[in-house]
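Hey all, sorry for the wall of text incoming. These are the two entities for the joint prediction.
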Amino acid sequence: MESVNEKDFSFGKPKPIDLSHHLSDISKARKPSPLKDLQRFLGNPNLIQMAGGLPSPAYFPFASLSAEGLVAESFPISPSQSPPSGSAFSWFWKLFGAPTKEKTTTLTVGKYPEQPDDLNLAVSLQYGMAKGLPQLQKFIDEFTTRVYKPAYKDPVCLVHTGNTDGWFKVVMTFCNPGEGVLAAEWTYPSAMNTTRPLGVTPVPVPIDEQGICGVGLRKILAEWDESARGMPRPRIMYTVPIGQNPTGATMEATRKKEIYEICVEFDVVIVEDDPYYFLQEGQYTHKSSRSISRTESDEEYIDNLVPSFLKFDYQGRVIRLDSFSKTVAPGCRLGWFTCNPLFAERLERQAESSTQAPCGLGQTMVTSLILNWQFNGYIRWLRALGTQYTQRRDFLLDCFSDEFHLEVEQEHKGAWKGNTVYRAYAVPRNARAMIEKTSARAPMFSFVPPTSGMFVWMQLHLNHHPAFPDETPVTLEMKLWEKVALAGVLFAPGRMFSCEDDGEASPVGSGHFRVSFSNVPVSKLYLAYVMESDH
Amino acid sequence: MESVNEKDFSFGKPKPIDLSHHLSDISKARKPSPLKDLQRFLGNPNLIQMAGGLPSPAYFPFASLSAEGLVAESFPISPSQSPPSGSAFSWFWKLFGAPTKEKTTTLTVGKYPEQPDDLNLAVSLQYGMAKGLPQLQKFIDEFTTRVYKPAYKDPVCLVHTGNTDGWFKVVMTFCNPGEGVLAAEWTYPSAMNTTRPLGVTPVPVPIDEQGICGVGLRKILAEWDESARGMPRPRIMYTVPIGQNPTGATMEATRKKEIYEICVEFDVVIVEDDPYYFLQEGQYTHKSSRSISRTESDEEYIDNLVPSFLKFDYQGRVIRLDSFSKTVAPGCRLGWFTCNPLFAERLERQAESSTQAPCGLGQTMVTSLILNWQFNGYIRWLRALGTQYTQRRDFLLDCFSDEFHLEVEQEHKGAWKGNTVYRAYAVPRNARAMIEKTSARAPMFSFVPPTSGMFVWMQLHLNHHPAFPDETPVTLEMKLWEKVALAGVLFAPGRMFSCEDDGEASPVGSGHFRVSFSNVPVSKLYLAYVMESDH
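and here's what came out:
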């Protein structure tokens, strides 16, 4: 009788179903790299290896690589430092409460290992398998299992060179020219720029404050008319379910289950592009009533995160894209797929004849850092990062709240349905250039306070602008955007996020700005704001 | 009247011609990444940037990156150290004459720059343009101009993530499904594995001891029968002209000019995949008559290198792929295209919606190293690297010469035409398992001593094997390969390098091994050899 290993997270889970019919013609035609066959002899330690075109590591001009890595505890989990009492700069100081002198630990990786399993440059700067470094593989396997808790047996993690390339590889591996991919009606433009030239057309799906909407998705799939649409019913859905780009929407568990079941019914593969997963910020509450302590344990923190689609994926039809871009740094160009073994094998074949393994220097230093932090340290880092973004989100929305009269809409009739839409009205002291000819009681813009990610999606009520309808919303959006930019604040104009090529998806009379609170030095924002308020 | 800048390497050179008709349908459909348009406002230093989804560099968990970089003079230019006189281990010691303790210099890159143009992690770990770091761009521009001396005005260098991905991007940017690419009949299999699944068929071109043969190329193009071939005349030629993979062939200047003119005549774009460029080793001479001093200046060294196709490219129809894989380390996953501006722009668009910029950690440390070495130091490093590979090549061929009776063929009738083909015959004391039943006066194998690269291409005369013709050459090649592998020496079996999918390109009765001398620890090889000789 077999004993049940307590740590066997796959125990009792279903096996993934056969989804091989989703592979593209290109992917089906791919063979393993012939040179990789040689690997089977490489186990012999005395082997004289004269097969591969590998340089000798003696010629790698790095004797070692090092980094001063920040300690996992660099930022506070709770925004609990008291601001200088009563100071006008209280928010400034709170947000700038990060240590002025960074506490670091020295990470060093030498050319040759001292212990057999040590990271070492002789291996990590050499040609390697497209799967990347085994130490990194081990970490992401454990991380994925413990954090995302996939619902099926033995999912596979495979490193990639960032989610943009990950998505490109998915399109090449699953889509044929002349087909479509389902995507939110407002979506990440680079992702659609990847698909269109390949002859794969984005099919917009209506969204609400949680992103892709089940009713809208089902309607599209159930009513699909191949001849009217000029393409078969889409088999692939692209989604950024947490901190959606550009709307900032977060898809909660119930919605995910609903969407997943629709995808089972219509045999759709879900591509979960989830770079903002750990920037979960919770509900926005005004600073006057904000509670700031976070006392949960790491396990509670993980359990309280909005789950990944993987958690509901009992069939293996989710391809999850994780990225170190927002948790470590974008320049790592490092992330990973989690998917069923058949899909992973095909994605690996594609990597072998294009990017191969991600950069060895990047892999080495990221792996060195997270091995130093260990699982608990990395979770600690991610929690604090979430807190940092929460403070940034709160600061921006507090500014909105100070500058405008905000009203919560219970039943919004526009693009956003739901109960957390805020409408912003001008208040007299703020009647500046952009709004001064606008009726004081007409809302200027609406937004849903994001509960994750980096973005606030402002829906501009351009039909209340005095130039409307002489100027179209598209023209007005661009004029306003340029005016704001020339005044020194750069937003992203909304129409570039339209899933459809012509950028005309806005509801009648509206436009949008995507406002990112992730990068601007808060001090700069605060000072600009204070100076404006002093006018 | 304009003054002529002595440093203007473009002065008097022709402009590239319009070759836009070579772009693939996919490439023509590509648009610039919409978010990149925002860049035009980023010049304003006081701009409050709320457009891009960029994390704050405060959250990058690396305060600095460092490396112990080898000094540029780490290896000797000339193999001039005297071996322990008369020692049986003389070659061993000469090849192991590299410094036992590596001399290094510390390279450190901090998060924020001290001077505006300093390398810094706040930039290099952030999202960036697909062109990569400006400091690296500047270096490769200068390097390309001074070393390869392109024949047309204003070629563009663009970083990529290694030549395998570079070639993938070229295929996507220039080839449509149903078309063909010209390639040497024996060629780098991963390159062909990239094209085939995309519906792009390799068209084998006959080769000789210099690689692709002008007569054979012209014949294919001039006699192209679209209906018989089932595809239009190929517009793209893939070539590894220096240290060709797998044959080790080097294409000299005269041949390159001939090939280039044929490509002009038939409007073919030349893709020059040239990772082994600096592993130029010169003619092999037996150790008894070898002269080992290299006294040329750096300028003479550069002038004496076999030129790149770029030097003859007065129309801008060459896409050159350079790689740091063999000059720094494969794990860098870093290299660059050199091509005309129109092609470069399209390749950059493709990078934007797939890999984006190469890994920032890799770019930073490679750039830091070569900025430390400077141009002259890098040339110094490359010269010494060439010497190292020359010694390795010589050692392997000396072993052949000691073990077999070698004869130089003046007029070889087989696959190799030319005057540098060696035939290897068994001599009685070496009549071991593989050859003992073979006629003592029938050649066992032939090879052209490579003048560059990492490979010796052994043509096995299997028709002299006692099991022939009962066993086919294909079966015999694999059996011999496996026997050698089980005995502890791993070669690469020849048929995997066949340009054609079925691997049946060998001349009647022959097989091949690709023998790499790049990676094996020379001490191991030497000791194995000495022990064998003592039998």
